[in-house]
Amino acid sequence: MSGKDPKKGKMKDVKKETGLGLSYKKDENFGEWYSEVVVSGEMIEYYDISGCYILRPWSMSVWEILHGFFDAEIKKMKIKNSYFPLFVSPVVLQKEKDHIEGFPPEVAWVTKSGDSDLEVPIAIRPTSETVMYPYFSKWIRGHRDLPLRLNQWCNVVQWEFSNPTPFIRSREFLRQGGHTAFGTKEESDAEVLEILELYRRIYEELLAVPVSKGKTSELEKFAGGLYTTTVEAFIPNTGRGIQGATSHCLGQNFARIFEINFENEKGEMAMIWQNSWGFTTRTVRAVGRDNGAKTDIPMANLAEQVKDVLATIQQNLFDVAKQKRDACVKIVRTLDEFTVALGQKKLVLAPWCDEEDVEKDVKARTKGEMGAAKTLCSPFDQPELPEGTLCFASGKPAKKWTYWSHSY
Questions:
Q1: What are phi and psi of 243, to 5 degrees?
Q2: Distance separating alpha carbons of residues 338 and 170, to the nearest angstrom
Q3: CATH 3.30.110.30 region(s) of the chain?
Q4: Which position among 25, 122, 169, 398 has the lowest Cβ density within 10 Å, counted as fewest Cβ atoms?
Q5: Which SMART domains match (predicted)?
Q6: Domain 332-407 is of which CATH architecture?
Q7: Is 277 helix (H, G, I), strand (E, B) or coil?
């Protein structure tokens, strides 16, 4: 025997083949490859508290670019920045929990100050509704106080117990969160889609990641909201969907909970219509270099040609990603076809009756090692649905086409 470690030899060959100094190949072990990329690429450093990560300068520079683009765009819409405290009193948190079915349980609590127990524990914000809306009710009195359109750049803590993954699932992350109030539903609806289009632009125009814009099912919408719109991405190597960013119409439910009323132009008391929308550092995914091709650029045209080259690379990255995503889309019409497509790690597009019980049944039937399959969204760009088309899962008349997959 030569005494050489065959595993080390294999890793050496892979590193040579990838040209990036990596030990794993994306097509063979995506999870290990991803973890290695974000660490070797100096984007993330692991921290000594599980689920928490250090964002290194490369990832922060990406976040700053997204921040700069989005902040400028919402200011054009006359949305103003504000900041609300990190801490939430248990009274208002309980108020939301009492009224909202499916309220997120991943709340972290401060229970001590030094060695002394706090008389009343204080929550660390998992979201911002309970922090902000008591003050909306104070500031909004009449129609002249509307619309109220605020955004904040902050961090939130969601103490999840699922397997943590850098950027994709972490316990603390940076976020942008918009919270707005209007006098009419029409104004609210218009803003939801305007913001969603900005999120599409972030993914497709800045990050070169193709996404599908659509509306979630009732089961997957934001707890307490009227409806949720989303941009959904898909990772071909894992066969999993990943929610990019969401824009929610909250309707009047939170206005009812927090008593946010106003006097309209007719002198009548009415409840406001609210939206919330946000994206986070979970938006930051790592992209490989383009094609390694070298080009000679004359100094006289350096600035102009470098700009053109970067635009070409950006477009190429998006086109390749979109081709890979589109190649994964599988149209199915029966539950058997659906199950086979899931096993092949496909992004499934299926005719659906849009009934919650049917969605829950599909989740139960597909529960396995990768987790249950779920709806991602019903795309706004709907394929033709011929009359008489049946739901793939129930056999009832189908109402829409919907994307399904395993999800992070």
A1: -75, 125
A2: 31
A3: 332-407
A4: 25
A5: ProRS-C_1
A6: 2-Layer Sandwich (3.30)
A7: strand
Record the tokens describing residue 261, joined without a space. 């009323």
Residues of the chain with CATH 3.30.930.10: 53-283
Contact 174, 63 (CB under 8 A): yes
Residue 333: count of CB within 10 angstroms of its CB: 14
CB 53 within 8 A of CB 46: yes
DSSP state of 377: E
What pLDDT is stored for residue 288 in this prediction? 47
- In 3D, which of 383, 399, 328, 338 has the Cα closest to residue 363? 338
CA distance 248 to 330: 28
Residue tagged 């942008």 (tokens): 176
Name the nearest CA neighbour of 62 among 230, 243, 283: 283
Phi-psi region of 47 (alpha: psi -120 to 50; beta: other; left: phi over 0): beta
Give the CB-side neighbour count of residue 238, counting CA atoms within 13 A. Answer: 18
Helix-helix angle 335-343:356-365, to 10 degrees = 50
Q: What is the pTM for the complete model shown?
A: 0.87
Give, for 75, the enclosing helix (H) or strand (E). helix 57-76
The domain made up of 53-283 has a fold known as: BirA Bifunctional Protein; domain 2 (3.30.930)
Secondary structure tally for the chain: helices H, strands E: 10, 18
Dihedral (C-alpha) 351, 353, 357, 358: value to the nearest 10 degrees?
-30
Q: Kindly list the averaged pLDDT for each block of 10 residues, start to end, along the chain of length 408.
A: 41 44 82 88 92 93 95 98 94 74 74 94 88 95 97 90 81 95 98 98 93 96 94 91 95 95 96 96 63 55 64 84 94 96 95 97 88 94 96 97 93
Tell whether the torsion through CA atoms of 234, 408, 367 and 395 is positive or negative.
negative
Amino acid code (one letter) for 330 = K
Q: In whole angstroms, what is the distance from residue 51 CA to residue 379 CA?
A: 32
